[in-house]
Amino acid sequence: MALGKRKPDQQDLWVATCDLPRSPGHPFYSKLNRLLDEAKFDEFVEDLCKSYYKDGPGRPGIPPGIYFRMLFIGFFEGLDSQRAIAWRCSDSRSLQSFLGMDITQPTPDHSTLTVIRQRLPLEVHEAVFTFVLSIAKMKKLLKGQSVAIDSTFIEADAAMKSIVRRDTGDDWKAYIRKLMADEGIEDPTDEDIRKFDKKRKKKVSNKEWTSPTDSDARIMKMKDGRTRMAYKTEHAIDVDTDIVLSAGVHKADESDTATFTETLVKAQAHTIQAGSESQIQDAIADKGYHSTDVLVWCEAVGVRSYIPERESRWHRKWIDKPSECKRAVYGNRRRVKGGRGKRLGKLRSEFVERSFAHVCRTGGARRSWLRGLEDVTKRYLMCVAGRNLGVIMRSLFGMGKPKTLQTDGTGGFLLIWAAMVAVGHRFRSFCDSVARQIGLAKSSVSKFAAYHVGFNAPRNLNAG
Q1: Chosen CATH of 140-155+226-380 out of 1.20.1410, 3.90.25, 3.40.50, 3.30.420
Q2: 257: number of Cβ within 10 Å
Q3: Is residue 21 very low, low, confident or very high in pLDDT (cuts 50, 70, 90)?
Q4: Does the predicted TM-score (pTM) go above 0.70?
Q5: DSSP E strand stretches across 222-363
Q6: SS3 state at 283
Q7: Helix (H, G, I), strand (E, B), or coil: what is residue 208?
Q8: Residue 251 DSSP SS3
């Protein structure tokens, strides 16, 4: 065979479409397309978005099915920005096949995604989120009886260095200059401002400071002590099926007790809109959601609460409070300490924290590149909808993301197990030979070998 040589980049003037290379498509996205086609996803979103486009002559816009599929790709590929999504779709032929784009058609640009997002209201994105829940209902993956709720924070597209005073509009440096002027320091240099600011006790409040670029973002103190402009996201997840029933985005300074009822009501509404007749019976949350008002509200709507109490040095007094408050708090305390309450608490930690890891860490939603509460909610809702599609795909085909095929868990487990069995054989033989030389009991050495290998190999592989 002769040696092939790389030729200069000289494209042909005319190329037949039949000669263009075609992608066989990614197995995961092919199966996902079949799932969406079975549920008639494109017909649903086109009918849903029809009222937001004009009828008559004119250049047709991007089909809504392509727009929402690109947002799903952002979750499955772990892309956090529209620019990254647009570049990835234009670079991959398998993703173009998933979008239904012809080989001669250019994929939508990131600015096109912005135009479509601004055109379609939040209600449309919520309807698409509910449609994904209806697919889960169709596949018998939606129960909606025991719901776990928790919240986390995502970084906003705003910087702490750019915050300004709400009353005067001064930035941080102008504010420090006024403080130094009050102490008699005139015309300070930038170095003097930094030294003065470093020595004084700093405290920022959302009531006094705001971001000029994103007025909905709030100052939030992270667990490591740093401050960031952030939003708060809250999940309500079905602990029986691992499906997220509601995913809301709130301002970061809103407390958990203030958003609990809204999240639970949305979860119930989404369940009903998805075609399920089940009612929420159990609400599980951590101690940050414990409040007398929350517990009384849960008892009033017929929901059993499982919310641990915060540690307190003092006993509760019920002299000036209604009897239903005492009954709700004591009933919740009794349920939390029971066996079922402990089991549901473990499920809450497992499912809710895992949903945050999937959406925020590996799904690219931890850092938002959009501004405004409504736009951030639209993007985040579609990430969670993609996550629900991943749960459905995992239950149907055994893979929840495209990269699952690269490291198949079953094959890796069998390979490791075979290696351990081989090591067990050799280690047992070695110990038996040593036992024969020193005159020890063969059974005791075999037990020693099995203990250090980690299992009784190979004699007890089929036992239990």
Answers
A1: 3.30.420
A2: 16
A3: low
A4: yes
A5: 227-238, 243-251, 282-284, 304-306
A6: strand
A7: coil
A8: strand
